[in-house]
Amino acid sequence: MSANLLFGLAAATWILAACLAPPHACRGAARALLGLGCALGIVACLTALPDGTPVRSLPVELAGQPVAFGMEPAGLWLMGFGLVPAAFACWLGSPLSGRSGRWHAGAAFSLLGALGVFGLQDGAALLAAWESMSLGGALMLMGERAAEREGRPVMLMLALLEVGAVALMFAVVLLGEAAGEIRFASFAAHAASSGNLVSWLAGIAFLIGFGAKLGLLPFYEWFPRAYASGSGATGALFSGVVLNAAYFALSRAWNGWLDVSAQSGTAFGLGVIAIALGVASAILAVLFAFQQDDWRALLSYSSAENASVAVVMLGVTQLFRASQLGDLAGLAWTVALLHLAGHALAKGALFLAADGVFAACGSYDIVPRGWLRRSGFLLGVGAVFSVMSLASVPPQAGFVSEWYVFQTVFQGFHLTSFIGRLVLVLAGAGLALAAAVALATFVKLFGLGLQGLPDVEVTRPVPRASATAVGVLGLCVLAVAVGAPLWLNALARGAQALFHVDIPRAMVAGWLLVPLTDKFAFISPSKLILAMPLLALLPLALLWLTSKRAVRRVPVWFGGMTAHERDAMTTALTFSNAMRTFYSFVYQPTISATREHEQREYFVKRLVFSSGVTDLFERHLFEPAIRFVNVCAQRLRALQSGNLNFYLALIGALLVAILFLTLL
């Protein structure tokens, strides 16, 4: 069975799931069809790699021309890894959807839109698929306890995504005008004759458009609001297949539709902009992730940080292409794909772990309640592997990709431009800061979110289905790292088509992973996974020896007072407060204390303390824009005065203007 046929079957099952979503009796069937479509998509990706699929015309037309579909190897890679957590999320469903079928319909629209972004071959169809992803995300969020809260997070998300959609429309129209049509093949064929100005404008517009969904600043501020208003299942779809689709589209636009290889100045300029924007976004996103006390908000900021790292590598690709270093450009391009593959699996596992915690206690707060003691081995293994990957701890997938990121940046001495070398040095320093804060962030998430003393008020463990899904995804994260010498071959054809060099094969030397040469550096997660259990024998032996001696347990020192062990535990606030104080110029922390009185004001009934951090772009960009729109709306209210003479005067002025323009 061909891969295109499997993709067609996957799309058909998602459409059928959307149709079955409204009736409550068919809700289980809709969830099963969503997961089945994801499984078919995974099989299709495995079948088509490493060659991709041929471009086939579909029996539909859009904007007066037939719609075609075909998948490149990079698209198959990113979609396949994104669909794995999406399948588990669909099968488990959203714990917040209740009796509403909107979540299932939204998931179907998001998956269909992502499939279109990965495979459609013209600008009009791409824009339709892009809007389908946005609509699907809004439906999922509105289907999760929508009646219990305001829709402001969803409206903010849609507003910022529509800014991106307008930028994409501008870029497609601009390239279409230069090429004479809006097929992607025509964009690439006429790129050399389009000129530097068209490439510059289109490149910036694509960065804004796709960056709105990748979480580049200032767009990343919709992430915590939207993610935290939904479930972990929604977050798994957003941070997996949807985020991967956005990055693939940006990479395809810059590397395929714009002839940056022939226009070194354009490639260099776009690369510098992408690196600067990506590094700044990664640092800010991970700093704010560290301060979150909600599973979904923390993981959403982390998704923005990881997407920003991938954008940095896309910028590095352009710098190397500008200097005609095709092998190093291909290395940076491949590293970004490897990074997003591991991120999709690990982030999906932790979002589903968050849903499991919510199902057990009714809250997404990061509070130490001893979930690992309650919920079994699989939850612990999957969570610790995923946390290790996102914190770049060996031998997980995140460690492999981060190691490659730094090894690629260290190759900046090959560049001919001093500015390019300086940019990569600064980028390396910024990414090192982001990686260090990410390590602390996931130590906090795992240590406070899953460990601690069991809470006597919570007796239910994490559901077995959620724990199993987390465990399987965590093992997949480890498999990506251990099997990297094998999996990288799937990207060989894609790299060769773009850079005319078989980069993935040059990144492997036997069971070693190397940055094109083993003379520069090397690691081997495959061998490390065998050596680490042997290295663990020594601490295990010491533990066995010490177990023979009596252990004396004493209460934790709590300011000289006798306290229960639970009262002395570290909280999310105390863990992150030192960083909040040190980086106060970024966080701009807010602290408030309010008193509730009983009868008379000197009888204090309750003291409420709250602390937080300031959202920089909301205060300095979004709120002024909202105030400006409100002022304009107040001034324009006169147009709705209801005065018939005023309306007739407006119509008369419009007719005079039309007549004047006609005579000109």
TrEMBL record:
Domain of life: Bacteria
Domain NADH:quinone oxidoreductase/Mrp antiporter transmembrane positions: 126-415
Keywords for the protein's UniProt record, in alphabetical order: Cell membrane, Lyase, Membrane, Oxidoreductase, Transmembrane, Transmembrane helix
Main location: membrane
InterPro entries cross-referenced by the UniProt entry: ComplexI-like_HydComp, ND/Mrp_TM
Pfam families, sorted: Proton_antipo_M
Membrane topology field: Multi-pass membrane protein
A Gene Ontology term for the protein's cellular component: plasma membrane
UniProt entry tagged with the keyword Transit peptide: no
Annotated transmembrane regions: 74-94, 154-177, 197-220, 232-250, 270-290, 340-364, 376-398, 418-446, 467-488, 528-545, 644-663
GO MF annotation, one: oxidoreductase activity
Keyword Transcription belongs to the record: no
Localization, UniProt: Cell membrane; Membrane
Name this polypeptide is given: Formate hydrogenlyase subunit 3/Multisubunit Na+/H+ antiporter, MnhD subunit
